[in-house]
Design goal:
The chain is α+β, with helices and mostly antiparallel strands. The protein is about 35% helix and about 30% strand. It has a five-stranded mixed barrel with strand order 1-3-5-6-7.
Amino acid sequence: MELPLFPLSTVLYPGAPIPLHVFEDRYRQMFARVLGGGRRFGVVAITSGRDVDPAPEFQPVGCVAEVREVRPYPDGRMDVVATGGARFKVDRVTQTSPYIVAVVSELQEHAGEQAEARSRVARSLFARYLNALVAMAGEPGEEVELPDDPVAASYLLAAGLQVDLPDKQRLLALPSAAERLLAEIRLLRRELALFERLEANGPAPMAGPFSLN
């Protein structure tokens, strides 16, 4: 399928929400097309440059964004809320200006071997991770209900992990939930060990509240 692409300094996962403020003329044109058609576009993470650059380089694996809400402003700007749909890989770029359009292929989802067992381990570690985050932020604890489906759970965990963009992209690109959950278990253990060291050294309070959104 052919999709307009929105390169961003973030990674979108299936099932996750993404709020956008559209103000550049090229993306106003892009959203005129999106809203007049299937209300879908592709989000790809930037590898070089910034989202305001005319032609930033981007990752070959991204996520379809399905528009749920639009709030237009009189001057042409708009606020958009979209939700992650299917993952895709970019096959070829068919247009570079005023915005990028590409032919993409949808990536299939697979649970993989040991997905359910790894999901249980990841759930336990993620609960500890959230408690550590909110404690460092000085916020009250919160519980997050993870879905039973290991594929959906793997993406919610990926969205909740506060790690660098390369780690976030690697989680998106892994071919199965089992592999994604294993990577998340390793990241969670790494982050929890870091929190323990910070706690032992008396960390400064975090600047703002933590939220999965």
